[in-house]
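Section 4.2 – Deliverable D4.2 (structural model, holo form)

The reporting period included a commitment to supply a predicted holo structure for the target in complex with BES. Inputs used:
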Amino acid sequence: MGLIEYIESKREENLDELKEFLRIPSVSAKSEHKPDIEKAASWVAEKLRAAGLENIRITPTKMHPLVYGESLNAPGKPTILFYGHYDVQPAEPLELWTSPAFEPTVRGGNLFGRGAADDKGQVHIHIKALEALLKTNGKLPLNVKVMIEGEEEVGSVNLWDFVNQNRAQLKADALVVSDTSMLAKGVPSVTYGLRGLNYYQIEITGPAQDLHSGVFGGAVPNPITILAETIAKLHDKNFRVAVPGFYDDVDELSREERKALNNLPWKEKEFRKTVGAPELCGEKGYSIVERLWTRPTLELNGIWGGYTGEGAKTVIPAKAHAKLSTRLVPHQNPAKIAKLVERQIRKLLPPTVRCKFEVLSTGKPWVAPYTHPIFQKAIHALEAGFKKKAVFIREGGSIPFVTQMHDTFKVPCVLMGFGLPDENAHAPDEHIALENYYGGIKSVAIFYEQLATL
Ligand code: BES
Ligand code: MN
Ligand code: MN
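Output (structure tokens):
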């Protein structure tokens, strides 16, 4: 049986197996899901084995285990390292899911469930593509190393130690990742740039304890008011981040790149529909695509403090909190940006409060030229798998591992994403379009098949 014929014949079987994967609530952020994390790691290991990969290993880390498998039976041929993650984001708020987060359901040509797009569905695409090649050919035309981690959604905390301790084992001619999106339905894409991510938490303390707002109000600092005032000063009226030095190292786009990105078949109307806000906003002087993929931002992710329960409680709280993050672009330095953000927040705060400023994680941006011949092979494979024209895009999300790998091994990183921007990754009703799941398996199989030469 031919490769594509084999893949077609496995449609139902593959989908059922992906559903099984999605039923495991492998939420990396919550300790109550530790057994599910272990279960998902074993599940992945078992499927790699069934696909015909060898040397399957589950390596424990300080947090969640890494799964590794390989097929190195093509001496003299290129070696690729495939990376993905089996952990998922928490499913809350549960009541906003149309069907339960961990009971995968097909509706309207989409498979719904936490992890369907980010990243279990995409990991499964590669496992099934490798299996199809191995089952129809007996062996692979190239060497493949597969590494699937369980901590991506909590910042890949222990991954880097593992990579450093296993450099020889992980050495490859290229890194392949499917944890991104396509530009739009019918537009298969290769991503050549991601933003970096720094995450911060601040705690503002005023009074030593909560105070009666009638007895004390008017004569004491209110940490919530002060936090809100401070946060409001972090952007100017043109939506630029008002942190001195924040833009100092930002690369401006070349004229050619700007033109290429703005000429992509990207539909503002669809974007507006996905967002659903009355109007859009953003940094003056840049198109929406430029704002999303090539400009740094500062975002509030959460803010809390005081009384938020039912009814009224007259109180001046002792503390107020916020979680914020900055998305970074070349050539901003994450450590430097963290210092600038902290310095500006401290400068804005009045002497009536104390502030604890924590940097929870940092991550570098990544952009790389797509001149290596492997990128054209990726484009051709996507075009063959989807029967559509494929494009090069950048994206606004972050995958810290890609930058680390690129810096360390100086290898080309091929990001072939099969998600879509409106598939609700990290939100209720996450899903993957079945046409992209099936098209993904075909494209990846064709891609690997064509990597006998590079
Ligand atoms: N798969 C995403 C990254 C992504 C999303 C890349 C969309 C391109 C487009 C990944 O799982 C993720 O969610 N990353 C986090 C950062 C991580 C350190 C928690 C992110 O981008 O917020
Ligand atoms: Mn992901
Ligand atoms: Mn994610």
